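A favour, since you know our structure tokens better than I do. Go ahead and set the record down below.
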Amino acid sequence: MTSLGPVALTHILVGRARPFGPNGEPSAIDKRHSTGPLSLTVTGVTGDEQGDPRNHGGPEKAVHHYPSEHYAAWRSHLPVPTAARLRIGAFGENFATTGLTEENTCIGDVFRLGNARIQVSQARQPCWKLNVRFGQADMARLVQEHARTGWYYRVLEPGEVAPGDELRLLDRPSPDWPLRRLLHHLYVDPLNTEGLAGLVALETLADSWRELALGCVTPQYPGSRSTL
């Protein structure tokens, strides 16, 4: 997978926090396309907001990337009323591409984009907002089950990015850990302690996901802080 070629950034999207949930909970999941260059900082794309900064955003979730090819898969899987809501940005992503998925993107991958440098930090944990967004009560569960979660970047080197810029792979420290494997161990095979131990050992994995994996590891694993 180290021979991954350049992939064009087809869309950059940003959103403002607005009342969204059943009780008016704020969210910026409704992203809009940007046509020009934007600054990328350690906390995300300029102009993008978070409705729930305690659980969203921050250095380890600075930018959300969602593969555009997933939309065709969802349209064939979901009922017509739900599928009608599908468009680039529907999952609240900041970056959209065709050519990068959870199959060929690994934890810790470092990319050059414009004059910025970014690193894959974790997959996305889908939440209830996707259920509301699509009007389907089990949408978050489906996203998790089908491993079409997208992923987050931390920003190693701030810079300017624009639609049409190319993501160029600079470094792949964990070639054996595509995101799909990470999702498999956490959600499909959580009793595989050897796999989870390997996940915990990934130096570039976001701390929140390391804690998630530790919660599944038995106390016999050296260094585990699990209370199970």
Residues 107 and 228 are 26 Å apart (CA to CA).
